[in-house]
Write a structure and sequence with these properties.
single chain, alpha+beta, Arc Repressor Mutant, subunit A, two-stranded antiparallel ribbon, 5 strands, 15% strand
């Protein structure tokens, strides 16, 4: 479970549509960018956030659940239909290595 500051960071990201950058988080909860980086890295390691090399930070499904978001992202192991319909397609769970590779490419 996230700490108080981590929860504030998750709520700040939710407020910005579930996706922002480090400086968006820092300015929203009034922290230094260095401390915000530490908080976001901790949340990324706990799988509440996806952090990309480009600097983008995005809530994962676990992150959405932590802040009380419902039906915002498909459940774990499912992918939203490309035509925007409510139907979701099943997919294999992503391994840690695949997730790492995706982070390094982004």
């Amino acid at each position: 479970m996230p700490t108080g500051t981590e929860m504030e960071a998750l709520k700040a990201i939710k407020k910005r549509g579930g996706e922002t950058n480090l400086f968006g988080v820092a300015s929203e909860i009034r922290l230094s960018s260095d401390y915000a980086r530490i908080v976001c890295r901790s949340l990324g390691m706990a799988d509440y956030l996806d952090i990309f090399r480009s600097g983008k930070i995005r809530l994962t499904s676990k992150g959405w659940k932590a802040v009380g978001g419902k039906d915002v992202v498909p459940p774990e192991g499912e992918e939203a239909a490309e035509d925007g319909s409510a139907e979701a397609k099943k997919k294999e769970p992503e391994t840690r290595h695949e997730k790492y590779q995706r982070w390094m490419i982004s």
